[in-house]
Amino acid sequence: MQRVQPNKNYGQHFLKDKTVVERTVDIIKSLHTANKLIEIGPGTGALTSALIPEFIDILNCIEVDERCVEYLHTHFQELQGKIIHKDFLKVPLGDILLPSSTIVGNFPYNISSQIVFKIIEYRDFIPNMVGMFQKEVADRIAAPHGNKQYGIISVMTQLYYEAEIAFDIPPEAFNPPPKVMSSVLVLKRRESPLKVNHSLLVKVVKAGFNQRRKTLRNALSQVAPSSILSEEIFNKRAEQLSVQDFVALTNKIESLL
What we know:
Blueprint: E1 14-15, H1 18-31, E2 36-40, H2 46-55, E3 59-62, H3 66-75, E4 83-84, E5 101-106, H4 112-121, E6 128-134, H5 135-142, H6 152-160, E7 161-169, E8 174-175, E9 182-189, H7 198-210, H8 216-219, H9 243-256
Parallel strand pairs: 2-3, 2-5, 3-4, 5-6
Antiparallel strand pairs: 1-8, 6-9, 7-9
Helix pairs in contact: 1-2, 4-6, 7-9
């Protein structure tokens, strides 16, 4: 079978740098205590080939591109019965996740943020993630409060996971080379996440950042009771609040509703 050509519609940039593969697999090995390893978007198997010797008994791959599925079946006999030919965002993860499942992969850049939000949704099953992202997205996920890149995905991810950029990857490590730098991002689930009403927190965080240039007094006027809008915290903008600040504010709002 001929080599698969990357498809822009799938956001494909196939990894080809063996050093990047080795460094990524070393991180996965150092973190791994799970009983299921799921690779998203294996493509033509650059990362997969390095995962097989160590993890084949617990490995599943999720790949939307039929050409890649055929390529993987042809070149990696070990993957028979281990490839799920679906769009990750449409896979009912509850059907395939075990109580401790690690997510890894060179994620398609056009859906990478959505992948993170789905991981958060299934956080009780996913203690770790090691993924390749567009550097700008990775920086945004790991950004501390007070940073211009800090936003909704930063708060929602860091509430449940420690986020760390392991290393950056130059464009020439991929085929075709993307026009931007990439990064390997590591998420480690927090042992004791802060207690909060998740759905209310989402409302508070979205309202705050959807009008991020305004103070919280204006941005949260439809979410927070008017009786507390005069408090000092509402003089701040959303990017000035830490994750802990958002949790405390959400818990206060809930207590008054």
